[in-house]
Design brief:
CATH architecture of the largest domain: 3-Layer(aba) Sandwich
CATH class of the largest domain: Alpha Beta
Oligomer: single chain
Low-confidence stretches: 243-247
CATH topology of the largest domain: D-Maltodextrin-Binding Protein, domain 2
Mean pLDDT: 90
Radius of gyration: 21 Å
Number of helices: 8
């Protein structure tokens, strides 16, 4: 019998919150440390294999069909898989790991509060300096889509995989786009969020891949698992008719 592969974050608070969430559904995930590596399994079943994977890597594993289910952030899925709706299903919003992707500028930009203000500054910036305003971010796909939708064109994205909020102070960028939960780090770096709404509201989510193969035995395990979580099976019923379903 082919096992259902469920990936959860491999470390930190997100892993702990994920395990706690499943425990509240009556699904006990036990972890153990072998050498320097952690392993995990679900009590009472041998039909489900638990994989501990970095939250940032889970979207790719779902997209390639190497795992069947995975818990990760909506921001990571939407950034790494722009066409995610074609291959993934959001089974359940988990109500933790909440954060917003925001566009932020220095506090001394006193006349910049809206995206229209930002657009005007970007246009003037290019005219004055001969190059586009720099936005430091690790969310290139999400920001390009957002700024295109908002009609902003005079900018360039600067890749930032470290402490993005410090990019302005170090003169690597003129504005930043980053994920934030409390806003305290932005405040500490003398930055303010612009726009009435964030670029994206994100939270930890349980995703299903319908790129992976779904033989009948694994599909039945999925139904049992979602039943334990008191989930409506309408979202997984699509697998009955999809071309990816193989018996």
């Amino acid at each position: 019998m082919e096992k259902l592969k469920l990936a959860i974050p491999s470390k930190g608070r997100l892993m702990d919150l994920t395990i706690d969430w499943f425990a509240r559904q009556g699904i006990e995930i036990n972890t153990s440390k072998i050498s320097r590596e952690y392993s995990a399994k679900i009590s009472g079943t041998t039909n489900i294999e638990i994989l501990l994977i970095s939250a940032s890597e889970i979207p790719k594993e779902l997209a390639t069909g190497r795992i069947d289910l995975g818990v990760t952030g909506q921001d990571l899925v939407r950034e790494k898989i722009p066409s995610w709706r074609e291959i993934l299903i959001e089974l359940k919003l988990l109500n933790f790991g909440k954060a917003d992707l925001v566009l932020a500028v220095p506090n001394f930009w006193v006349d910049v509060d809206s995206i229209d203000d930002f657009d005007a500054v970007a246009i003037n910036f290019r005219r004055k300096n001969g190059f586009r305003l720099r936005i430091a971010t690790k969310y290139h796909n999400l920001m390009r889509s957002y700024l295109r939708r908002m009609g902003v064109a005079d900018y360039q994205l600067i890749d930032s995989q470290g402490a993005t909020e410090g990019a302005i102070h170090s003169d690597r960028a003129d504005a930043i786009a980053d994920i934030t939960s409390s806003g305290k780090t932005l405040e500490a770096n003398h930055l303010k969020v612009i726009g009435e709404e964030p670029v994206l509201r994100s939270q930890a989510t349980l995703y299903l891949s319908h790129v992976t193969k779904w033989p009948l035995s694994k599909y039945q395990t999925l139904k049992q698992l979602t039943g334990m979580m008191s989930m409506n099976d309408e979202k997984i019923r699509v697998l009955q008719d999809t071309k990816f379903r193989e018996f």
